[in-house]
């Protein structure tokens, strides 16, 4: 069975390691053999940490044999996106425009996974400064989808999604500033959770009070995502949204849940193959006892007009000076976004932030009627490798229309697999909950996973 260890979910690895049924070294050897086979095909890692991971697995095995207290992820391999700081390594951010120094400390989420016994195996690819929902850059090259090598694994956490789908570690740390966890989760057939603003700390965002960027778990199963979330969440003094978090409300059973069902998001139309897949999910939820009602609300009609101001002015303010120095070393679409942001005034930004507040209040009103909202994750199946995907593009505005609104409002949202398109690539359903409604989302996600038997499926690669 040794060669099959790379197929094991994190929950199984952790339980089997704790029971001395498998060795962390054997698990790591199998995962890294898979990583070495998949790297030249998919382009997953920009900073592999294979030797360090093997050494860490030996330490983990010794701790087991000594009978030491073990964390909930003891011996479990995971990946982290290369915009997440790791002590002693540069945070490359998918760019050649600057040479960053080694990070002085781990991000809180990474430190928590390590403290729980998890072992990082490498830093995964992303587009430059995570500005696209495809994964390619001058620095990283092109990352491919293991379900179909001519299609994107999504972005900006595309290295993480491709690795997970191909069996390279059962867990991955992603980030999400406009859909960058949920998009790649949908494209690669995974569970990806963007938690409530502050539930998982993002202590490094430059404007903590105006934050719309999240860090969160990506996994192949709902149970793995839930386990990872339980380790990552909690207060961190540098993230004001994480302070004073309320207890999780109890998870309600699927039976009797009121779900608002959105088939076409705002002014955009959903691809027929996506509609077919989410209809299958709807039937499964109705059979489980959920009460599903159509939902159409004008609050979602023009959200991109708000998001583009917020996102591109951030690019212009924070990356504009680098673009002035580096010029053509930066991706063209990154430079375009900076240029768009420079055209907006301070008054434009204030008006956009006011619209952000109005959107939040409108969505809050919807949760007076519904327990959850369900939407397509993406409005079409995974895009070609050269589709573009910048957050400042019309393509992004339409394909990712269900995603960026909930970055602005801070509501928790997850993508869960629900079917396939005609080209063999996965399709996801997005579940959105009220603030701190992660357990409700995960309960419904688990019901879908059970009904659709998703984790038994693997790409033929």
Give a short overview.
This protein is of the alpha/beta class and 461 residues long.
Please render the helix and strand layout as text.
Blueprint: H1 10-18, H2 24-42, E1 45-48, H3 50-65, E2 77-81, H4 108-115, E3 119-124, E4 136-137, E5 141-142, H5 158-165, E6 171-176, H6 182-188, E7 191-194, E8 214-219, H7 222-232, E9 258-261, H8 272-287, E10 291-294, H9 303-326, H10 332-343, H11 346-366, E11 372-376, H12 394-399, H13 404-409, E12 413-420, E13 426-432, H14 438-452
Parallel strand pairs: 2-3, 2-6, 9-10, 9-11
Antiparallel strand pairs: 1-3, 4-5, 6-8, 7-8, 7-12, 11-13, 12-13
Q: What labels would you give this structure?
A:
two-stranded antiparallel sheet, 11-stranded mixed β-sheet, alpha/beta, single chain
């Amino acid at each position: 069975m040794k060669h099959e260890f790379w197929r094991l979910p994190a929950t199984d690895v952790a339980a089997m390691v704790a029971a001395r049924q498998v060795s962390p070294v054997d698990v790591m050897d199998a995962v890294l053999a898979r990583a070495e086979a998949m790297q030249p095909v998919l382009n997953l890692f920009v900073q592999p940490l294979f030797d360090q991971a093997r050494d860490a697995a030996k330490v983990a095995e010794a701790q087991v044999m000594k009978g030491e207290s073990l964390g909930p992820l003891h011996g479990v391999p995971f990946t982290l996106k290369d915009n997440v700081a790791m002590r002693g390594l540069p945070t490359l951010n998918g760019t050649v425009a600057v040479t960053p120094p080694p990070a002085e400390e781990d991000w809180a989420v990474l430190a928590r996974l390590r403290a729980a016994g998890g072992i990082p195996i490498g830093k995964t690819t992303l587009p430059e400064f995570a500005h696209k929902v495809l994964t390619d850059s001058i620095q990283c090259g092109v990352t491919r989808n293991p379900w179909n090598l001519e299609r994107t694994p999504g972005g900006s956490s595309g290295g993480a999604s491709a690795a997970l789908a191909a069996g390279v570690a059962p867990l991955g740390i992603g980030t999400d500033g406009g859909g960058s966890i949920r998009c790649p989760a949908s494209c690669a057939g995974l569970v990806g959770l963007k938690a409530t603003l502050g539930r998982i700390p993002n202590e490094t965002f430059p404007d903590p009070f105006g934050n719309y960027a999240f860090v969160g778990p990506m996994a192949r199963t709902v149970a793995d995502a839930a386990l990872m979330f339980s380790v990552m969440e909690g207060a961190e003094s540098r993230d004001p949204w994480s302070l004073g978090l309320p207890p999780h409300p109890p998870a309600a059973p699927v039976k009797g849940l009121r779900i608002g069902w959105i088939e076409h998001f705002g002014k955009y139309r959903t691809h027929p193959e996506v509609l077919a897949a989410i209809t299958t999910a709807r039937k499964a939820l109705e059979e489980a006892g959920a009460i599903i009602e159509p939902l159409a609300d004008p609050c979602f009609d023009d959200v991109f007009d708000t998001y583009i101001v917020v996102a591109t002015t951030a690019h212009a303010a924070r990356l504009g000076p680098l673009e002035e120095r580096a010029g053509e070393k930066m991706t063209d679409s990154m430079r375009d976004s900076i240029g768009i942001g420079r055209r907006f005034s301070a008054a434009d930004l204030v008006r956009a932030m006011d619209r952000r507040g109005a959107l939040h209040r409108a969505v809050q009103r919807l949760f007076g009627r519904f327990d959850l909202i369900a939407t397509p994750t993406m409005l079409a199946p995974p895009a070609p490798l050269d589709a573009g995907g910048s957050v400042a593009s019309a393509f992004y505005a339409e394909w990712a229309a269900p995603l960026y609104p909930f970055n602005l409002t801070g509501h928790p949202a997850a993508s869960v697999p629900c079917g396939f398109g005609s080209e063999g690539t996965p399709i996801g359903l997005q579940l959105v909950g009220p603030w701190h409604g992660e357990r409700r989302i995960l309960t419904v996600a688990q019901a879908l996973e059970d009904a659709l038997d998703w984790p038994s499926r693997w790409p033929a690669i």
